[in-house]
Amino acid sequence: MTIIETLVHYGTYALTFYALYVVIGALAFGYFIWRKVFRSSGAKPQNIAPQLGDSDSHLPR
Predict the structure, then answer these.
(1) Contact 12, 19 (CB under 8 A)
(2) Comparing C-alpha atoms, which of 59, 34, 38, 36 is closest to residue 49?
(3) DSSP 59
(4) How far apart are CA 49 and CA 53, in angstroms?
(5) What is the pLDDT of residue 36?
(6) What is the pTM of this model?
(7) Are 57 and 50 in contact (CB under 8 A)?
């Protein structure tokens, strides 16, 4: 084996593991964002229109 063949051989391994690293990282980040956005115990939205003094705050809810 020549030096070039050895470098190409280990380069393909390095590229494969780097691609897996990127894919696994992207999936983990997506899962983290998904959990933050769709968590069930989040704060409930509140009606703040009467507090702001909006022009339509006199309307029934």
Answers:
(1) no
(2) 59
(3) S
(4) 6
(5) 87
(6) 0.54
(7) yes
Q: Which residues contact 9 (CB under 8 A, 6 or more apart)?
A: 1
> What is the distance between the alpha carbons of residues 61 and 55, in angstroms, rounded to a whole number?
14
Closest to 50 measured CA to CA, from 37, 38, 42, 59: 59
48, 61 Cβ separation under 8 angstroms: no
| Region class of 11: left (phi > 0), else alpha (psi between -120 and 50), else beta | alpha
Each residue's pLDDT expressed in tens, for the chain with a length of 61 residues:
699 999 999 999 999 999 999 999 999 999 999 988 887 665 566 665 555 555 655 666 5
Task: Tell me the two tokens of residue 49.
Answer: 């229109």
Distance CA 14, CA 52 (A): 58
